[in-house]
Amino acid sequence: MDPTCGHDQRARSNAKDDRRSLCQVRHNDAGHRNEERPSARQTASTSIIAIAIFAPELANLTPDDNLAWAIYLSLNEAVKGLLCLALGLTVPRLRYYGFAAAVWFVTQAMDEMTNGNLFTEHTYEYPLLTLLGIAAYIATRK
Question: How far is Cα 99 from Cα 105, in angstroms, rounded to an integer?
């Protein structure tokens, strides 16, 4: 019996959810019994959001304005790809759509870094987007 929680701390297992209770976290946390530690998913989410906020600002380290602008736009697209990848990894029913969107934003980041010279006629990117959407739709139907 754990006096801080008021009930027995034997291992419990639930087929639906096998998470530890707050009391178990506090009980098993050695010297830090009064602190709740964030989960790995919360830490990863916080890191992704921090990267999304601060990564484009790295362009300010470049003295050349044109290069800084290209880096800023590229990093914005890359961050969107990272957020879509995170969405695909955490929400199973949106997995293929998240991965397809991540590919789309990575190609847009490459296009921004080359100052729009990757898709010279600007007509290739929309068929790519259509193919990615169709592939994600077909993959989710199976």
Answer: 10
Residue 25 lies in a domain: no
16 in a domain, yes or no?
no
User: pTM of this prediction?
Assistant: 0.61
Note whether residue 127 is domain-resident.
Answer: yes
Count how many Cα atoms sit within 13 Å of the Cα of residue 71 in the half-sphere of its side chain. 15
Query: How many domains does one find in the chain?
Result: 1
Domain extent for 120: 40-141
Helix residue spans in the chain (DSSP H) = 22-27, 40-54, 65-90, 95-113, 125-141
List the beta bridge partners of residue 2.
Answer: 7
User: Which tens digit of pLDDT belongs to each residue from 14-45?
Assistant: 544 445 555 454 455 555 555 667 777 677 77
Residue 73: what are its φ and ψ, rounded to 5°? Answer: -65, -40
